[in-house]
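Bench notes, bay 3.
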Amino acid sequence: MPQMIFVNLPVKDLKKSMAFFGALGFSFNPQFTDDTAACMVISDTILVMLLTHEKFASFSPKPIADTSQSLQVLLTLSRESREAVDAIVAAALVAGGTTTDEPTDYGFMYDHSFLDLDGHAWGVMWMDPSAVQS
């Protein structure tokens, strides 16, 4: 079995968060989705568990961070082109998300970001494959 990553994020309104991420093109695994959690599929090995505050608190010994005051993590997704970066950020804005910056073009890399409905920061980037050395 390949190694997987499960990112757990607390959300205030699970149904609204599912609608937001659904509008960005993500699907949910119904086997791991109920009234307290939704399993959002990023890839075969990367999943995001959207958890109600109560459910998240049952796993964490620390309080949930106040995303209006601090940033605990920046989640970054890669995309296949600059246009795909712009498209997902545009979809996030239409679905109720916000952005705090303009896209940045480094020549070999292009990035932009958005905040979801709960203030979690999502970076989105494209990198020229020829710039990546093996």
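Next record in the batch:
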Amino acid sequence: MNTEKMNKNQPGGKADQFSKSGFILAAIGSAVGLGNMWKFPYITGQYGGAAFFLLFIVCLVAVGLPVLLAELAIGRGGRGSAASSFIKVGGHKAWGGMGMLSVIGSFMIMSFYAIVAGWTFHYAIRSFSGKLFSNSDFGAQFGGFISGYTPILWQAVVLLITGWIVARGISGGIEKFNKVLIPGLLLLLIILMVRALTLPGAAAGVEFFLKPDFSKLTPESALVALGHAFFSLSLGMGAMMTYGSYVDRKQSLGSATLAIGGGDLFYAFIAGLIIFPTTFSFGIDQAQGPTLVFIALPAAFSAMPLGSLFGGLFFVLLAIAALTSTVSLIEVPVAFSMERWGLSRSKAVWIIIAGCFLLGLPSALSFGLIPGLTFGGKSFFDWMDFLASNILLPLGGLIVTVFAGYFWKGVGKEAGLTAGWFRVWLFMLRFVAPILVLFVFLHSAGIIKF
């Protein structure tokens, strides 16, 4: 393979990089996924409402942003995949194994994340068509849907769309995609927020979300807030590290970190102003967990004027949020494959897409078609989620904090902070973030329980 072709295919090569605004939007898109639009509202409902939201903000600033800056700095310093960037800036091949955890984790997450993303596509179409509201037993509808073969079709659709975007490259694919869909996501959020805030009884939902009652907080809620602050920024999965390898040297990583964190928080805030006014208006238990979106909210839309329209817009919102994350998840193993085996971007993309589809099949089938596919009381889907989200990602994040805080000599130069802010950041990386991320890991793994 000639040198020109190799340079074009390598992550971080000059042939294909983000523009300044494109990088910010792509990174915000990676952070703003189903975690903001689906998970954040129901865990906020479960763990204390406004008090939990404030705790989440504190955790985002104290832990999320320092680790985010570290990942971006490692990526730009190494100018390679999540695995090779560790080696290039750390100076030892052993660090490559640490980076591989992120590559494996992102691949595993994509295999089952695409399934849930497919659910949102299915529900958007059924809502716009009115078929979703032809039967008021939304629990039975959801159960019947996920236990059939249709989710496999939608899983394939999500993967094909994602592959098409990523195969077009960084500037021509991922950046262009996010430049259109992130503003579109904001527009949908505002439309749905206005609709939610004008519902009867919406004020009670706003109060629950914005008026804190600190007596509702528990030690467990603190760890959940910390964990979500960490995961909502796509940390530990190699996405921000890989995106960092495509960032121009002139771009301020400190400013970019603040912009990404602010964007992530803003989208979560607007999502809360949609979910909680709606649930309170229709007497829905906002703490009921993952079924909130696919069972409880359709019931609310069915009782709302123009419910098919607003329900459809809501699920389109979820679908867009999911896609902005799938492109970043796929890019991590794609960048590694291009670099490790010298594959063209197109070939690497479709090999990874095929692998994710095959690995995701047992997850898609574990909801009913293969009811006996359980191990230790967990389905295949649950095990994939547990291993990737609760083991690999916290462990990957812990490695980033320790590596950047103690082992990488050039971390200050790459981060580009002023002397004062660098000392604060380094203190957080060395003495605050590792301890808190370790607690998240122990809690997520089930070792610490309350």
